[in-house]
Structures are given as structure tokens and as C-alpha cells.
């Protein structure tokens, strides 16, 4: 009888311990759910608070565009949650909406600031189409239309008859050898440049580059091969023509071993 009572007490004790253990587990689970829920609600509140909303946008290296010109686009970013700003998408959008911007890099400065670092496209050549004149950069991208007498761009060589279509701003020029004109012109010294009025590319399959002088004579240059040698020969010929009063219509330095004056 005594053994049975002891056994019953042990069973009751085990049941109490099991019930207490289950209750403890339940309380821990309930506590965990409460903590998790509280954390989620807290983070959600913090995430959607004004703390992470964009308040300041700084544009760096923007020489051509002032901040007011960029505000049309950048204004839409103000007030957005910094976590929701798509870095790559906004960089591409800035580059596609502003023809003078070659590259844009967006940096998030937590908690509420954006930095946009700009690399601008620089004018490289002037290109004419009928009465219109356009600027292109060193990748051949049309930047803008300018007035024929625009100050500040007179140091850029004017290229004529290189395009037979109305250029669209932001597009690239089809004739890539036009860019070689800038490369050649930039290697010429000031004495040679003083003789040059504009440049062009021949319509034939060779696509030879030529320069037209102030007295409407042509200098046939060819391509970018042997630049230094061609420039030295051309400088010498122009000095001889000037000193000796030689009349000419064409100077041909395409073949450096046998330049032609006629």
C-alpha cells in the first residue's frame, strides 16, 4: 500500500513538472512573439518615419548645369525614403535626361542625404548642318545647338558637310572618322591653326580629312597616321608659301614622303 502511495506521488510530481515545463515554454514562445512583433512594429515605424526621408541633395562637379536646372528631376527624390531610392535606376535616368551628363554616381549618405557626383560631357567639335551649328563631345554625342557666333567655342574647329541629316541632341554622330578631326587639330601648333577656317571629310570611300584655309584653299590631310610628321611638313610648306608668295589651291600631305602643292 505504501509503495503504491509513493508511486502515485511520483506520477503526480512528474505531471506537475511536465505541466510547468509546458507552461514555461508557452510563456517563452509568447514572449518571443511579443518581442518579434514589437521589433517589427518598431522597425516599421522607424523605417517610415521622417528620419530616413531625403532632406538634402548635393550635386558635385556640375559646371554646366546649375542646381536649379537639375531640380526638375532631383526634386522628385526629396521626401522619399532613402532605402527606397534605386541607385542604378536613378543614375541611368539622370544620364539619359541630360545630354551634357556623361556619368552620374549616386551615393546614399544615411540617414537623409544624397550625393550625386557628375561627370559632364565637354564640347570637342563644332558640327554644321545647313545653317545650324551643333556641339559634339569626344565620343561623338550631340550636346546642343549653338549660335554661329557663340563666344567660348571659337577654339573648337568647325566641321562642315559631315552630316546630311538634322542631328538629334543626345544621339551619336554616324561618321566616326569625324572625331579624328579634333585629334588632328589639337596636335597642330598655333601657326597652322591660324590658316584654318574649317574642316571636313571627303564623301568618297577613303573618307579623307581635309582642312579649308582662310583663303578658301584645301589641305588634304588623310587620316591620323604620322601626325607629328605631317604637322612638321605642313608648317614648313605654309611658311614657304607665305614667304615666297606661292599661289596654290591644294596642299596634299597624305603621303608624307611626297607632299604635293598645286
Question: Quick recap of the structure?
Answer:
Helices cover 37% and strands 23% of the residues. The protein is an alpha/beta fold and 262 residues long.
If you average the pLDDT, what whole number results? Answer: 87
Task: Enumerate how many helices there are, as a single number.
Answer: 6
Unreliable stretches (pLDDT < 50, length at least 5) are none
How do the strands of the widest beta sheet line up side by side?
8-9-10-11-12
State the shape.
rod-shaped
The CATH architecture of the largest domain can be named as 3-Layer(aba) Sandwich
Major sheet size, sense and barrel closure: 5 strands, mixed
The tally of domains stands at 3
Could you tell me the CATH topology label of the largest domain: Rossmann fold
Strands, total number? 12
Q: Would you give an account of this structure?
A:
The chain has 262 residues and is of the alpha/beta class. It folds into 3 domains: 16-48; 51-120, Ubiquitin-like (UB roll) (Roll), CATH 3.10.20.310; 125-261, Rossmann fold (3-Layer(aba) Sandwich). It contains 6 helices and 12 strands. The protein has helices at 2-47, 67-74, 87-97, 179-187, 190-193, 227-244; strands spanning 56-60, 101-109, 113-120, 125-129, 132-136, 142-146, 158-159, 196-201, 209-213, 218-222, 250-252, 260-261. It has a 5-stranded mixed beta sheet with strand order 8-9-10-11-12, covered by helices on one side. Strands 6-5-4-7 form a 4-stranded mixed beta sheet. The chain has a 3-stranded mixed beta sheet with strand order 1-3-2, with helices on one face. Strand 9 (209-213) and strand 10 (218-222) form a beta hairpin. It is rod-shaped and about 125 Å long.
